[in-house]
Design goal:
The protein is of the alpha+beta class. The protein has two domains: 200 residues, no CATH class; 96 residues, OB fold (Dihydrolipoamide Acetyltransferase, E2P) (Beta Barrel). It is 32% helix and 33% strand. Helix 2 crosses helix 4. The longest helix has 22 residues. The radius of gyration is 21 Å and the shape is globular. It starts with a strand and ends with a helix.
Length: 303
């Protein structure tokens, strides 16, 4: 009896064949694990957590072993040999859209190619209509994940950050023993569909939201790791004020593991929210994820 689900996540392209820096892969793998665990917490709030283990499989691929974990060894043995748990994990992956027929979150994004026109809730399903009046019906669990801000960002992280690079053309994911039945493929041209703003209905959208990957230099920060009122230089004379949403980064600031200087460089996922009031346009910013931290050469020399 199967005790685990072996999910394959495979990057494809010329960059993959040359080899990818382990420090670039680490945030990707962490985002995959976070996406799976947070999704399970949302749709199965009273269930045991899913344990996520990653090991190299073949060039460009990773076996991501998934199993329900419990609080002690006896419970763990009981849960691991329960076939219903394997079914639950596969069902969760289908709702996320990493595997399956296209009725999960990833499939919804690919179907819509932008924000939905309207949604209609039924007993256990939700009917979603795109801007051309085409419709898709999905499970309510999948729709609840589609609407969750954290899940939206996790999905953008595991596809946008790598498919945005030259030399990475597509990503495949599937169950190791069931590739033909479960494979899902995402290509570079589909990345814009995964913008979290595309989960908002036109009729309730009162602002414009856009995520970009860019470089920032710190200007004002919180040495105590508070998330609000940071300011950054964003090229030339442009200065923005932003809220930091990356808790791991804030913890490193607070502990002193990272000590920022004005010449340090941060590569980030930056959310810009534009609001229109009369003839005035206002913008606010959120740093969703720090992808890479590059200390200035001067700071490195001093250290």
């Amino acid at each position: 009896m199967d005790k685990k689900v072996n999910l394959i996540y495979k990057l494809e392209g010329s960059l993959v064949n040359k080899g990818i820096d382990v420090f670039e892969l680490s945030p990707l793998l962490l985002s995959i694990g976070k996406l799976i665990q947070e999704s399970n917490d949302i749709v199965h709030p009273n269930s045991e957590r899913i344990s996520v283990n990653v090991k190299p499989f073949q060039k460009g691929s990773f076996v991501i072993e998934l199993a329900l974990s419990a609080s002690n060894n006896l419970q763990q043995l009981i849960h691991f040999v329960n076939q219903d748990n394997v079914k639950q994990i596969k069902e969760l992956l289908e709702w996320i859209g990493i595997i399956g027929s296209g009725a999960g979150v990833i499939g919804i994004y690919k179907f819509l190619k932008g924000p939905p026109k309207k949604t209609e809730a039924k007993a256990d399903e939700v009917k979603i209509t795109d801007q051309n009046d085409n419709s898709i019906t999905v499970n309510k669990k999948a729709f609840s994940l589609f609407q969750n801000n954290s899940i939206q960002q996790d999905i953008y992280n595991i596809y946008g950050n790598f498919l945005g690079k030259d030399g990475v053309d597509s990503v495949k994911s599937y169950i190791k023993e069931e590739q033909k039945e479960t494979e899902v493929k995402v290509i570079k041209d589909e990345v814009p569909y995964f913008n979290p703003a595309n989960a908002l209905l036109d009729e309730v959208k009162d602002n414009k939201r856009n995520i970009t990957q860019c470089f920032l230099k710190p200007k004002r920060l919180s040495v105590e790791g508070e998330p609000d009122n940071w300011s950054f230089r964003k090229g030339g004379e442009t200065v923005i004020t932003a809220t930091i949403k990356d808790q791991d980064f804030l913890d490193k600031i607070k502990s002193g593991e990272i000590r920022l200087s004005k010449e340090d460089l941060l590569e980030v996922n930056l959310l810009e929210i534009q609001e229109v009031n009369g003839e005035e346009i206002y913008a606010k910013y959120e740093v969703l994820k720090i992808l890479n931290y590059k200390p200035s050469p001067i700071q490195q020399k001093l250290i």
